[in-house]
Write a structure and sequence with these properties.
Blueprint (H helix, E strand, L loop, with lengths): L10 E5 L3 E5 H5 L4 H7 L7 E5 L2 E5 L4 E4 L9 H6 L9 H9 L8 E3 L5 H4 L3 E2 L4 E2 L5 E5 H8 L11 H10 L2 E5 L5 E3 L2 E6 L6 E5 L3 E3 L22 H18 L2 E3 L6 E8 L6 E8 L5 E4 L2
Parallel strand pairs: 5-6, 6-9, 9-10, 14-15
Antiparallel strand pairs: 1-4, 1-18, 2-3, 4-5, 7-8, 11-12, 12-13, 15-16, 16-17
Length: about 290
Amino acid sequence: MGNFETMKPYSYYSLHPSSLYLDGGAMFGIIPKPLWNKKIPSDELNRIPMTMRVWLIKSKDKLIVIDSGAGDYQGEKFNERYGLLNPPKSFQSLLKESMGAEPGDVTDFVLTHLHFDHACGALTGLDLKPSFPNATLHLHRAHYEYSLKPSLRDGGSFQQPIIKKTLESYQNIHWLNEMDNHITESLYFQTCHGHTPFQILPYNKDFIFLADVIPTHAHLSIPWVMGYDLQPSITCNEKQLLLDWISQKNLNIIFDHDANNIGGKVLKNQQSSQFELVNVFKSQQTYFEEVKI
């Protein structure tokens, strides 16, 4: 991870375009239900409530969006399967109602990876127009290449026609790679591979967006990794290194899928070596929330 540069003051916002329900057993892998159910109780179908958080950074000359949810066009069958119980909120209405902005005002659009619940919101409406038509799209090239030929195990997480349409729809694409960890002048990324190859975690001097490496507060414990992860043991190693670094840098963590907790600080218990969430940013579960960091 690189050194931080001086950056202009930013405001931070948590956007909640849609809810999501996934099987609790899949979300916690080998962890027994009596343990994880205490952290995030499941419904009668064994699903846990989650969000598809979008992180927004605003400055004098930048409006940066990180991730995009599953989109507002998927249809009734898809919405029922994944527990999108309320109609997804379009970015056009969400931005206009909350901060008087338009999708065209977004300057930079960052995708941590191309699983449907993070990337399909790159397009909007039944005609699949770009959600942020003037933005530079930042995407890891090696992850994009993997998404075209994923393994049999995780192929269902990628909607390849949507990925192809996304790449055709954005005029400016900044391909990320391992030679340079800059996204923008003051926004960086760390690459992880346990969940999916070349997933990126954006960060700056204030926060790190944890994407699917640590999707909720319940996943702070090192062995608590998702059954969706391609390489769970690698995820464990990545989490250990990442949380040590976050703790040393005193960064705020931002969860992608935690419905009740936007994020907070992590504190390492020196006796147990376990990490705890402190100074928590609690979510009011509204479509748009400013986060004072």
